[in-house]
Amino acid sequence: MVRVSGYGQTGPYRDKPGFGVIGEAMGGLRYLTGHPDQPSVRVGVSIGDSLSALYAVIGTLLALQERTRSGQGQVVDIALYESVFAMMESLLPEYDASGEIRQPSGSALPGITPSNAYRTRSGDYVLIAGNGDSIFKRLMQVIGRPDLGTILSWPTTTAAPGRQSASIPPSKPGPSSANATTSSPSSMPPGYRPATPIPPPTSPAILTISRAK
Q1: Which residues pair with 207 in a beta bridge?
Q2: 49 given a catalytic annotation
Q3: Is the terminal CB of the chain with fewer CB neighbours within 10 Å at N or C?
């Protein structure tokens, strides 16, 4: 038997009605989505329902495996809020280890950069994911700033906040700078000074830096 409900069959909220958006709030997702100075927003799809459905399928498959092995049936109990909570990555160990409560951060992911939508001179946005250490260095090569990939204060992904907040040192002007596109990362704080114009991406909308195999 597979049961999908808002709060499960045994907890203190077991008799309360449940809904996907409430499960997203109880699981922590709605607290994180949006910007710090604005109300939370939904992610655009019914993610709480979809996650619960996936866990229900996984539980069903495991129950069938157990029936094949032992002949015994199983009860699969899925709660909407638990399905969402399971997706909260490092939020629980962050709080357990240091008491830190993750806060909304817009489209950025704290400690992971560059991994965001960045506005170009033309007003369009480009999505850049270059937040691995080796990927970041290759990204700097692509935009003509290999010096930024070797700054000692940015040696690893754990030092990524420095990449967000530090002022970028100027580079020597190059012949292509007049036709380049300037990036204004939305995650950069006041005082951030873009260094040299960034060349247009290799595709109209997305610049992808692939991980080396």
Answers
A1: 128
A2: yes
A3: C
Q: Please identify which residue in the block is written with the tokens 């409560």.
A: 101
Write out the H or E segment, with its range, that includes residue 118: strand 115-119
Give strand pairing partners of 169.
none
Least confident of 9-18, 30-39, 53-62, 143-152: 143-152
The C-alpha atoms of residue 54 and residue 67 are separated, in whole angstroms, by 20
Cβ atoms within 10 Å of 72's Cβ, excluding its own: 8
Judge whether 198 and 143 are in contact, CB under 8 Å.
Answer: yes
Residue owning tokens 């709480």: 48
Highest mean pLDDT among 61-75, 124-138, 177-191: 61-75
C-beta separation of 157 from 137 below 8 A: no
Q: What is the pLDDT of residues 89-121, one digit of tens each?
A: 888 899 999 999 989 988 888 777 788 888 888
Find the catalytic residue in 15, 49, 133, 147.
Answer: 49
